[in-house]
Design a protein that fits this description.
With 339 residues, the chain is of the alpha+beta class. It has a single domain, classed as FAD/NAD(P)-binding domain, CATH 3.50.50.60. The chain has a seven-stranded mixed beta sheet with strand order 3-2-10-11-12-9-13, sandwiched between helices. Strands 5-6-7 form a three-stranded antiparallel beta sheet, with no helix packed on it. The protein has a three-stranded mixed beta sheet with strand order 8-15-14. A hairpin with a 2-residue loop joins β5 and β6. The longest helix has 25 residues. The chain starts with a helix and ends in a 19-residue tail after the last helix. The mean pLDDT is 94. Bound molecules: flavin-adenine dinucleotide (FAD). Flavin-adenine dinucleotide (FAD) binds next to α2, β9, β13 and α8.
Length: 339
């Protein structure tokens, strides 16, 4: 939907096809943290798209809220990192990247005086289900044709070029086609994109119970404005199976209880899972498909598709229009070594 919005804003006539309801798959299931978790452990290309997205979200979120009445709740909550073995690396990386990370010793302790934390005030969040809802409304307001419950089943060809989509509801022709089908992009575009299941728990809590995102040992807590707390997440290879498991519930709840106390145990509201579009190196594929000219790709965002989305859409549109790009596009290109 962000790719569609970006192209529409540049004067393209855009139609969107979704096999279900737009914004209800991984983009709904995710946590909405607007940074890779421990960005210093990710390839630079992931950080570049993430960083570029932050000012784009600052402009987009209030625009969507005003136009649609659905506020995606972009919130500068900040994050507290508790992993003892990551704190030094995190502090050094923040300093090198010119990002604030207050002195470790000056941090308010969340787990008792002996365990330090590193405050990362620049890590915010977006309430992604609302972002999806707002985008869906915005697309309709702008007259972008949104064909839901309409799976794409293949590509129309004109000579050697992709010139449209075959769908369950018939053929649709276009000058260009963009493949942005998340975890399902692999089969559609012969790309190395595979589903990676992530399970989450949602806890009821009073507003203000937790003020910041907490990152610890690969798990996290995310406080929403209404007090609810998301506990995430698992990273599992389970094909396209979206069932939730008792084991994941126990593990995530134990993590939450360790940080919030036993009161958390009785506060589980719901559990869900989503399928991340996993790429081999976590770097999305953005650009024209080398074997299928006319087919453009914006997929494979793995664990960071919400934070990287606005800059990915911008990069895609610049490439489609042959314009100079804000970031070095080479890192996201499909081709040698990445297909
Ligand atoms: C538990 C969990 C936590 C996460 N936390 C974060 C986080 O905190 N921050 C962050 O940045 N990222 C996070 N992510 C990752 C992020 O959610 C994804 O990278 C991102 O949402 C991928 O977006 P997408 O549009 O590519 O895929 P999706 O949101 O999955 O959308 C793909 C769409 O394609 C449609 N589709 C599939 N097949 C077809 C077809 N044949 N024809 C037409 N349409 C089709 C689907 O119906 C769907 O609507 C998380 C993911 C999970 C699961």
């Amino acid at each position: 939907m962000l790719s569609a919005l970006q192209l529409h804003s540049r004067g393209w006539r855009v139609s969107v096809f979704d096999s279900g309801s737009a914004g209800r798959e991984s983009s709904w299931a995710g946590g909405g943290i607007l940074s890779p978790i421990l960005p210093w452990n990710y390839p630079e290309a992931v950080w570049q798209l993430s960083r570029r997205s932050l000012p784009l979200y600052d402009a987009l979120a209030p625009e969507l809220a005003e136009a649609t009445g659905v506020d995606p709740e972009l919130t500068a909550s900040g994050a507290m990192l508790l992993d003892p073995d990551q704190i030094q690396a995190g502090a050094a990386w923040c300093a090198a990247a010119g990002l604030a990370a207050p002195e470790i010793d000056a941090i308010l302790q969340t787990r008792g005086p002996s365990l330090p934390g590193l405050l990362l005030p620049w890590i915010g969040q977006i309430r992604n289900p609302r972002l999806g809802q707002a985008l869906r409304l915005r697309l309709r307001q702008l007259g972008i044709a949104l064909h839901e419950n309409t799976p794409v089943t293949g590509w129309l060809r004109d000579g050697g070029r992709v010139a449209g989509v075959d769908t369950a509801a018939g053929e649709h022709r276009g000058d260009c086609v963009v493949l942005a089908a998340g975890a399902w992009s692999g089969a559609l575009g012969a790309l190395p994109v595979a589903p990676v299941r992530g399970q989450m728990l949602l806890l009821r809590a009073a507003p203000g119970r937790l003020k910041r995102i907490v990152l610890d040992g690969g798990r996290y807590l995310i406080p929403r404005r209404d007090g609810r707390i998301l506990v995430g997440s698992t990273v599992e290879s389970a094909g396209f199976d979206k069932r939730v498991t008792g084991a994941a519930r126990e593990e995530l709840l134990a993590f939450a209880v360790g940080l919030l106390g036993t009161e958390a145990a009785g506060q589980v509201e719901t559990q869900w899972s989503g399928l991340r579009p996993g790429s081999a190196d976590g770097i999305p594929y953005i650009g024209e498909h080398p074997a299928l000219p006319g087919l453009w790709v914006n997929t494979g965002h793995y664990r960071n598709g919400l934070v990287m989305a606005p800059a990915s859409a911008e990069l895609l549109a610049d490439l489609m229009e042959g314009k100079p790009t804000q970031l070095d596009a080479a890192a996201y290109r499909l081709g040698a070594g990445r297909l």
